[in-house]
Amino acid sequence: MNMLRKVLNLLADIVYPKTCLVCKRNLKGIACIDNFVCTQCWAKIKRNIPPFCRSCGRHLEKPLQNICPACVRRELHFDRAFSPCVYEGVLKELIHAFKYQGKDYLGPTLSRLMIEFIEEYNLPMELLDLVIPVPLHRARLREREFNQAQILSNHIARKFNKKVLPDTLRRLRFTKTQTELEIDERLLNVKNSFTATQKEEIKGKNILLVDDVLTTGATCSEAAYALKEAGANIVFVLTLAN
Asked: Among candidates 174, 166, 111, which has minimal Cα distance to 135?
């Protein structure tokens, strides 16, 4: 049923006039991004700007600080996280379409935001050995039929000539969707929910861990913990938004 839905969505996008996925304006004859989003909506995507929290990567309102109040209060197992955008408005709509409406073809468009951020802020890709997507549980993967983090990882790795290891992390149990939970519940929900395989591949390696959204950082933190327990050295996190 999900595959049929995705095929029908794709056919509709081909047969019917292209409209902006956000504002629904007809894209014929107007400037747009990849025939999916008009440039007016694209320009409304809120970007993260320096100074960044040295832990979660969010914009710091008080430039004399180097870490946000939320990160002071909790331990995160990744070394640093980065996000090009803020999870609201236009980008939130696009991410929801990407993840929940079968529009996996938005991968190249959305990954462009991450690639541009890497280049603009000179993230040290030359020091990183591997790109690893945060995995879905097999039940959720069957439901969605693709892992959005893996699609983003593939585009980033191709751009910077890095190896992707999509099967190195595995979810041990099915967890509730994090969006339904409060902060403390999110931490408990994902605690010890990942394990690392292919340990020889990641031992001593510096890793870029990729996901779509970072909120509390709980999911990426637990994934980074599993990688470090398996011998990984540095674990940076890159998400589309936070």
From this structure: 166
Distance CA 163, CA 132 (A): 9
Whether the upstream peptide bond of residue 17 has omega within 30° of 0, thus cis, is no
Q: What is the pLDDT of residues 72-107, one digit of tens each?
A: 888 899 999 999 999 999 999 999 999 999 899 999
pTM, 2 dp: 0.88
CATH topology of domain 45-241: Rossmann fold (3.40.50)
- Separation in Å, CA 80 to CA 54, 100, 136, 144: 6, 28, 22, 29
Tell me: the pLDDT tens digits for 192-222?
788 998 899 999 999 999 999 999 898 999 9
Alpha helix segments (H runs only) across 164-204: 183-190, 199-202
14: left (phi over 0), alpha (psi -120 to 50) or beta: alpha
User: How many whole angstroms separate alpha carbon 25 and alpha carbon 99?
Assistant: 22
Domain residue ranges of the chain, discontinuous segments joined by +: 1-44, 45-241
Q: Please state, in angstroms and rounded to a whole number, the distance separating the CA atoms of residues 63 and 18.
A: 43
- Where are the alpha helices (H) located in 87-217, listed in sequence order? 89-100, 107-120, 138-144, 148-160, 183-190, 199-202
Please give the Cα distance from 125 to 116 (Å, whole number).
Answer: 13
Cα gap 134→117, rounded to integer Å? 20
148-160 vs 107-120: helix axis angle to the nearest 10? 50
**Residue with tokens 């990160």, as numbered in its chain:** 71
